[in-house]
Amino acid sequence: MAPQTTAHILIVDDEAEIRHVVKVLLESEGFAVTEAASGEEALARFTPDTDLVILDVKMPGISGYQVCLRLRERWNVPILFLTAKTQDSDLTMGYSSGGDDYLAKPFSYPELMARVKGLLRRYQVYKGKLDSGVDQYVEWRGLRLNCERNEAWLAGRQLNLTEKEYRLLRLLLLHHGKIFSAQNLYESVWEEPYFAPSSNTVMVHIRKLREKVERDPRNPELITTVWGKGYRIE
Fold first, then answer.
1. What three-state secondary structure class fits 69?
2. pLDDT per residue as tens digits for the range 159-171
3. DSSP state letter for 226
4. What pLDDT is recorded for position 134?
5. Which of 179, 185, 190 is CA-nearest to residue 234?
6. How many CA atoms lie within 13 A of 189 on its CB side?
7. Distances from the Cα of 89 to the Cα of 12, 102, 176, 201, 209, angstroms
8. pLDDT band at 36 (very low <50, low <70, confident <90, very high)
9. Are 95 and 205 in contact (CB under 8 A)?
10. Are 166 and 216 in contact (CB under 8 A)?
């Protein structure tokens, strides 16, 4: 079934065949698609109304990781990495650069559509594209969150958070004092079944979030680790 509102998706891959296959699949679902054959072209073709970026990791010139970092300087659009690499170090690099999800090549049609629709659905809800017209704010220890528009401030300074970082912060902040296990966080934020490697995904995102909200990320005072149990905002 095609989405009720047409979403705009940017596909970035130096392989024309991959771009063509993904474009055909997405357009069959009613999505609007723009193609880019390189990192440089991706940055040139990205527009503020882009709802999702599907980004190849390994490309000549600017890599997918570098493109992701550049986009994260200004935008919170969800980014889905396409890659032949699935080692833990590669996943860490992707998440650290601001990526939201990974899809290993070769992938199936159902896998692709499940990831795309999941990212778009969460982005529309948390970014405020389904705006209720009412801004809801949560404040705690200098942090201020707009729960409708995916925005956060620390001591009056707006934070540049990825979607996953925002959702982690929002969950912890709304329930400050409560301990969340890695499994709790993963299943709540990623909305997927938890497996052992998922713990590393949560750890990487917590580390990146601390770098943005803590005075000293190596000695966190806000987002603390409760050894053997999980994480909480004190």
1. helix
2. 999 888 998 998 8
3. E
4. 41
5. 179
6. 26
7. 22, 13, 31, 11, 19
8. very high
9. yes
10. no
Residues 6+ apart with CB under 8 A from 19: 11, 13, 35, 37
pLDDT digits (tens, 9 = 90+) for 135-156: 467 788 888 888 767 788 988 8
Q: Which value, to the nearest 10 degrees, does the dihedral of the CA atoms of residues 69, 73, 77, 78 take?
A: 30
Angle, alpha carbons 175-180-182 (nearest 5°): 145
Write out the two tokens for 24: 């055909």
Are 130 and 89 in contact by the 8 Å Cβ rule? The answer is: no
The residue whose two tokens read 């396409």 is 82
The helix (run of H) or strand (run of E) holding residue 127 is helix 109-127
Residue pair 146/136 in contact by the 8 Å Cβ criterion: yes
Exposed / middle / buried, residue 39 (Cβ in 10 Å: 0-12, 13-18, 19+): buried
Identify whether the C-beta of residue 123 lies closer than 8 Å to the C-beta of residue 78: yes
CB contact burial 69-100 (16+ within 10 A = b; e otherwise): ebbbeebbbbbbbbbeeeeeebbebbbbbbbb
Tell me how far the alpha carbon of residue 178 is from its chain's centroid.
24
Nearest CA to 169 among 186, 152, 181? 152
Contact 36, 64 (CB under 8 A): no
